[in-house]
């Protein structure tokens, strides 16, 4: 009677059940609970690192527009000059907001004596009329003394609202320097935008 029952049970099993059983036995024979927990722990530990991966933060409008390397991409770029870095229409100042360090005793990329550069900056993309290329510019505030008020400029190319701080020029970026006194802003080239 037991042989008849065993045969009937074998007949009732279909191919899918046999395949599933073989796969389960194969996995059970080649893995352990500790190994599975170690892999699960590795994944759980790496998930918080995903926000640290680099993210392209370009303007969506710039991605939709076709790039024309020889045409000025904005009204500021159309009238920008590359000779006098003490004027507001100097090509690097397309997204600056504040006093120019070049008129306060500093340089385009250096703070005046007695001030300290902020550890953070906002980023702009400016068009150089001399070589007809666009560059990434890091605008960094110089802090530690009162504003020199020599030449105050406002460039709004690519300026975004405050909830997008990496491209907002209205924030005083002096936090982290030991003094929140704003003096002037620099405009250092970070790289090409192409």
Automatic annotation (TrEMBL):
Protein task: Methylamine dehydrogenase carries out the oxidation of methylamine. Electrons are passed from methylamine dehydrogenase to amicyanin.
UniProt name for this protein: Methylamine dehydrogenase (amicyanin)
Extent of the signal sequence: none
Subunit architecture: Heterotetramer of two light and two heavy chains.
Pfam families documented for this protein: Me-amine-dh_L
High-level lineage: Bacteria, Pseudomonadati, Pseudomonadota, Alphaproteobacteria, Acetobacterales
Leading EC class: oxidoreductase
Molecular function GO labels: aliphatic amine dehydrogenase activity; methylamine dehydrogenase (amicyanin) activity
Source organism, top-level taxon: Bacteria
EC number assigned by the record: 1.4.9.1
Organism name: Gluconacetobacter diazotrophicus (strain ATCC 49037 / DSM 5601 / CCUG 37298 / CIP 103539 / LMG 7603 / PAl5)
């Amino acid at each position: 009677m037991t042989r008849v029952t065993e045969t009937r049970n074998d007949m009732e099993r279909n191919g899918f059940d046999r395949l599933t059983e073989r796969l389960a036995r194969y996995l059970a024979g080649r893995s352990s609970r500790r190994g599975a927990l170690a892999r699960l722990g590795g994944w759980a530990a790496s998930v918080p690192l995903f926000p640290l991966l680099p993210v392209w933060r370009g303007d969506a409008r710039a991605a939709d527009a076709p790039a024309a390397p020889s045409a000025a991409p904005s009204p500021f770029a159309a009238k920008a000059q590359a000779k006098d870095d003490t004027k507001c229409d100097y090509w690097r100042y397309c997204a600056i907001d504040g006093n120019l360090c070049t008129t306060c005793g500093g340089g385009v990329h250096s703070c005046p004596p007695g001030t300290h550069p902020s550890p953070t900056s906002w980023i702009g993309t400016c068009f150089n009329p001399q070589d007809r290329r666009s560059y990434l510019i890091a605008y960094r505030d110089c802090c530690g003394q009162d504003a020199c008020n020599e030449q105050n400029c406002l460039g709004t190319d690519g300026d975004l609202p405050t909830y997008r701080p990496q491209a907002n020029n209205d924030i005083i970026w002096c936090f982290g320097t030991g003094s929140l006194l704003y003096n002037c802003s620099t405009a250092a080239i970070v790289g090409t935008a192409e």
